[in-house]
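INFO batch 0412 | record 1 of 1 | parsing
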Amino acid sequence: MAKLLVLHGPNLNLLGTREPQIYGHETLSDIDADLRARAMEKGHDLETFQSNAEHELVARVQATREDDTDFILINPAAFTHTSVALRDALAAVGLPFIEVHLSNPHAREPFRQTSYFSDLAVGVVSGFGPLSYGLALVAAMRQIDGTE
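INFO prediction complete | emitting tokens
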């Protein structure tokens, strides 16, 4: 059994009501419940954490050094384009992670097309709405199970 951590960045707590034409109608609770069920089905433990505060996300990443986390899925949201601190935390802990985005940043405003995380990530899944998380989870579990 592996332990996966899903991190959600700023404003993702508003999913379901925030710009549904871009981010969809599913809530963050819906997404988290689906991910937990899928992970449990494969015998893995999955924890989720959302914060609008950069320092809280950094602290949670750093805590993985002590809590047996094996893999991280992260949607840094707006911090994708701004957070050297969160990038440095992920680099410091050295755990594999997948960067996740509901929308396709490359099809949006130019400032959204730069990620401080992609070059460190095992992979990036974007543009599929809430399904992006599910696809990233499948990829993470395959990495953990050695089938990918």
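INFO post-check: The CA atoms of residues 10 and 52 lie 4 Å apart.
INFO record closed
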